[in-house]
Amino acid sequence: MADKYSGACFCGSVEIEVSGSPEAMGYCHCSSCRSWSAAPVNAFTLWKPENVKITKGAEFVGKFTKTPASDRQFCTKCGGHLLTVHPTFGLTDVYAATIPSYPFSPAVHVNYPENVMRIKDGLPKLKDYPAEIGGSGQIVPE
Ligand SMILES: [Zn+2]
Ligand SMILES: [Zn+2]
């Protein structure tokens, strides 16, 4: 697997690069992700913060913090979403759609009971989050 993958916002003013391998990949069905992404589900890739870099257009990165758990970042020119820093998890979610060159390989669905679109892909569906990051780890029906 190549070591670095780049991506950009919707207009290309902000470029981003991830390196190494993510800590986790999957889909979040929570209402916050759906509302922020304006989509029925959010595909996430979670990285250690040091593996995520803004390589161009840092001056166009806007931030919105609704809760201390999520520092959401977007391009102020096009409104395109880039990533969400999760200080409480110590991880940064770079949306899979933002880094299309990265071979997205989801392993889990989180916050599945909040779903508006069931996805029958056979992957585990969690009630909230894995126990390792403070969730219940409880599996719910697909
Ligand atoms: Zn942009
Ligand atoms: Zn979510």
UniProtKB/TrEMBL annotation:
Gene3D superfamilies hit by this protein: glutathione-dependent formaldehyde- activating enzyme (gfa)
Domain CENP-V/GFA as annotated: residue spans: 5-128
> Could you tell me one molecular function GO term of this UniProt entry?
metal ion binding
Point out the signal peptide segment: none
Q: Which UniProt keywords apply?
A: Lyase, Metal-binding, Zinc
**Matches recorded under Pfam families:** GFA
PANTHER family, per the entry: CENP-V_GFA DOMAIN-CONTAINING PROTEIN-RELATED, GFA DOMAIN-CONTAINING PROTEIN
**Similarity comment text for this entry:** Belongs to the Gfa family.
Q: What is this protein called?
A: Aldehyde-activating protein
Species of origin: Leptospira adleri
